[in-house]
Design a protein that fits this description.
The chain is about 75% helix and about 0% strand. The protein is an all-alpha fold.
């Protein structure tokens, strides 16, 4: 028996499930930005300054876009928005890697940073799939 990947990727229930699996943690992580901004501040690149502002701003985007994934009507724009957000926020992750910055009192080795970059790339691909597979009819309901 051959598995048809195309049919799997078109499955609305799978899209709903993956959207929930991604959306809820994004909301939680966004809330954490407000509960403990000092934890996130060290990785904000010094070049842009105002680390507390950027931690709150990214937290707000994570909450809003994560919630948007849960709602079929906003899933397409949220999927694209998360892709853009992950690309922009990778600057902070890269800054942490290149400058060997501790977060939460821990520094990480190169293997961890590479793993994190791969996960981030996979998340971007999944969010692109969600955005692209969101039907126009979902946007009007």
């Amino acid at each position: 028996m051959m598995i048809n990947i195309s049919n799997i990727l078109k499955n609305k229930r799978l899209q709903d499930l993956i959207s929930i699996i991604l959306g809820l943690p994004l909301i939680w992580i966004g809330i954490m930005h407000f509960q403990d901004p000092a934890w996130f501040e060290p990785i904000v690149p010094k070049l842009i300054g105002y680390p507390t502002f950027w931690v709150y701003a990214s937290g707000l985007f994570e909450i809003g876009l994560g919630a948007g994934l849960l709602i079929p009507r906003s899933r397409q724009i949220s999927g694209y928005g998360i892709c853009l957000m992950l690309i922009v926020l990778y600057w902070a992750n890269f800054n942490m890697w290149v400058n060997d910055i501790a977060i939460g009192g821990s520094k990480f080795d190169t293997t961890w940073h590479i793993f994190r970059a791969v996960i981030q790339a996979l998340l971007i691909m999944v969010c692109l799939w969600i955005a692209r597979s969101s039907k126009k009819s979902d946007l009007s309901s």
